[in-house]
């Protein structure tokens, strides 16, 4: 923490983390595992001169293997898992009418904002940990068991578009048996730095695939990277769970787009209505929260991302110079890449992910089970107002 104060651009702090990870990789006693958030793959290429909006998923995986990570996992898998857990939570809350609106909890900037500014609405936050934290918890339990490795010798590194995730990963409650779920968070920029330090010719890398069991994700997991994506992913699954059968509904265009506040009224197959608000930027979130507190708005589901445009435009993403920004809308180009990746995937609904089905069958039981609560859910604390 101190370095952030000493070094206003965070460069010192960034470099410290990179050196820690090189040290862990060189330690033969450690199994060092990495996972990457959805928004990283649509921006990392910019650091190597590729046009904004280029998808580099396969090259990113190849680079991570070359750097020396023992397993390369996809946080998108846990985004699918989040939808199973949070979708089930939403269905339950709609039935009981309690703690509505359900507010998403995958953005630590937003969660902290609620803790500081709206402590009387902490119960409205989904109890789901954010996807990379869920995946970290599973790596140190389910995966450790499968590999027959002591979880204390596993190091989990998350590559995130986000600087707030560094703080999040150190939260005491995001741990299990005295181990943090995630040990280190690196930003997209820091990963680029590591790739450069390793002397890897990124642009000419051949595509490689993520490792299993956390390597398969659906289009729903991918769209978490753009504002509106979590809401859309949840709706894809909640619709079918409520209907009890397969449906053609995949695209929910009403929640897409980079406007700061979007509203949509969605009728579920059982007639229940979900008034949804999708918000990006904390100034917009404050406006909506004040309307809710005054009783002027009535929602059942709210998605909030602290960064304008969502994680594609997070604080850890490549910095685009002013001249380029005048010619291209970075948020639109990166979010187009996210929705293209979604469309390119054979499975686009979280509950259809075969590895998700498998982990419930083999390990977790069912969404919101006792074990799910123990590993995948968390709680929040009121913090001083600012
Ligand atoms: Fe982090 Fe911004 Fe994404 Fe929130 S919206 S998780 S602060 S990158």
UniProtKB/TrEMBL annotation:
Keyword Transmembrane: no
Keywords linked to the UniProt accession: 4Fe-4S, Iron, Iron-sulfur, Metal-binding, Repeat
Hydrolase as UniProt keyword: no
One GO MF term attached to the UniProt entry: ferredoxin hydrogenase activity
Protein name stated in the entry: Ferredoxin
Source species taxonomy: Bacteria, Bacillati, Bacillota, Bacilli, Bacillales
Full-sequence range covered: 193 to 578 of 578
């Amino acid at each position: 923490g101190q370095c952030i104060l000493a070094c206003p651009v965070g460069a010192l702090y960034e470099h410290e983390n990179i050196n820690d990870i090189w040290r862990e990789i060189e330690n033969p006693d450690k199994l060092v595992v990495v996972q990457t958030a959805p928004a990283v793959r649509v921006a990392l290429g910019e650091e190597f001169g590729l046009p904004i909006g280029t998808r580099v998923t396969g090259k990113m995986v190849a680079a991570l293997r070359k750097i020396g990570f023992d397993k390369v996992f996809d946080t998108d898998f846990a985004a699918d898992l989040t939808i199973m857990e949070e979708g089930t939570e939403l269905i339950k809350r709609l039935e009981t009418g309690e703690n509505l609106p359900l507010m998403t909890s995958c953005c630590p900037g937003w969660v902290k904002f609620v803790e500081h500014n709206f402590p009387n609405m902490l119960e409205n936050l989904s109890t789901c940990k954010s996807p990379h934290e869920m995946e970290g918890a599973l790596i140190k339990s389910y995966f450790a068991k499968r590999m027959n490795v002591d979880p204390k010798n596993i190091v989990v590194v998350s590559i995130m578009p986000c600087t707030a995730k560094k703080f999040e990963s150190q939260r005491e409650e995001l741990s299990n048996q005295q181990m943090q779920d995630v040990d280190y968070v690196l930003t997209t920029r820091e990963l680029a730095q590591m790739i450069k330090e390793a002397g890897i010719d990124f642009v000419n890398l051949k595509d490689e695939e993520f490792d299993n069991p956390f390597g398969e994700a659906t289009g729903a997991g991918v769209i978490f990277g753009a504002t509106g994506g979590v809401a859309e992913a949840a709706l894809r699954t909640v619709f079918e769970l409520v209907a009890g059968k397969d449906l053609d509904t995949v695209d929910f265009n009403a929640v897409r787009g980079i406007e700061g506040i979007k509203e949509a009224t969605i009728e579920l197959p059982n007639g229940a209505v979900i008034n949804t608000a999708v918000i990006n930027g904390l100034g917009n979130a404050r406006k909506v929260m004040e309307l809710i507190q005054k009783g002027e708005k009535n929602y059942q589901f709210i998605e909030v991302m602290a960064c304008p445009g969502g994680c594609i435009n997070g604080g850890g993403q490549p910095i685009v110079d002013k001249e380029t920004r005048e010619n291209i809308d970075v948020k639109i180009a990166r979010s187009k890449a996210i929705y293209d990746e979604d469309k390119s995937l054979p499975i686009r609904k979280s509950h259809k992910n075969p590895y998700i089905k498998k982990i419930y069958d083999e390990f977790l039981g069912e969404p919101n089970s006792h074990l799910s609560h123990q590993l995948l859910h968390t709680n929040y604390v009121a913090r001083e107002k600012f």
